[in-house]
């Protein structure tokens, strides 16, 4: 079994959380920004890298401190073999006074053969819980208002 660390971002804008879907791969479902920790990288470094790569939002968009909410373990069943994930969940808050669009598209081009388009939107945490796939909602209850 392949073992890997992942970093997950709960990005908060007011009381809402950022979700995305991949229009070219609707079977992937609704997700939060996340990614694999590279060798020599900490989960928090991965968090900031993945958020920028996937959303197009740079570190200046957020309060400077990410809150580590906790770790959950997950086994991803893959055709090429199971993967055991150690998932680190973080909360990032959009800086006060900053205005962001309600929806937007961004194409990830880092570490992929062809650009992958993501459609982003904000939802209430209760709605996120209904939509999110593969335990992306594991630590939503840890978010403080």
User: Low-confidence runs (pLDDT<50, min 5 residues)?
Assistant: none
Mean pLDDT: 95
Roughly how many Å is the radius of gyration?
15 Å
- How many separate helices? 2
Distance between the termini: 38 Å
**Record field, number of beta strands:** 7
Bin the strand percentage. Answer: 35-45%
Please outline the major beta sheet.
7 strands, mixed
Oligomer: single chain
Helical content (DSSP H or I, runs of 4+):
10-25%
The assigned structural class equals: mainly beta
Shape: globular
Report on the structure:
With 145 residues, the protein is mainly beta. It is 14% helix and 39% strand. The chain has helices at 43-55, 125-131; strands at 2-13, 16-21, 34-36, 67-76, 83-93, 103-108, 116-123. Strands 1, 2, 3, 4, 5, 6 and 7 form a 7-stranded mixed beta sheet that branches. A hairpin with a 6-residue loop joins β4 (67-76) and β5 (83-93). It is globular.
């Amino acid at each position: 079994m392949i073992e890997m660390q992942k970093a997950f971002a709960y990005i908060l804008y007011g009381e809402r959380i950022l979700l995305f879907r991949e229009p070219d791969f609707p079977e992937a479902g609704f997700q939060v920004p996340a990614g694999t920790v590279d060798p020599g990288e900490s989960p928090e470094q991965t968090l900031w890298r993945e958020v920028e790569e996937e959303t197009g939002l740079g570190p200046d968009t957020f309060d400077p401190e990410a809150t580590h909410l906790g770790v959950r373990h997950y086994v991803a069943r893959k055709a090429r073999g199971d993967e055991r994930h150690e998932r680190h969940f973080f909360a990032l808050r959009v800086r006060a006074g900053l205005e962001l669009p309600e929806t937007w598209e961004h194409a990830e081009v880092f570490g992929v053969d062809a650009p992958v388009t993501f459609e982003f939107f904000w939802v209430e945490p209760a709605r996120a819980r209904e939509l999110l796939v593969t335990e992306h909602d594991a630590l939503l209850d840890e978010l403080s208002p």
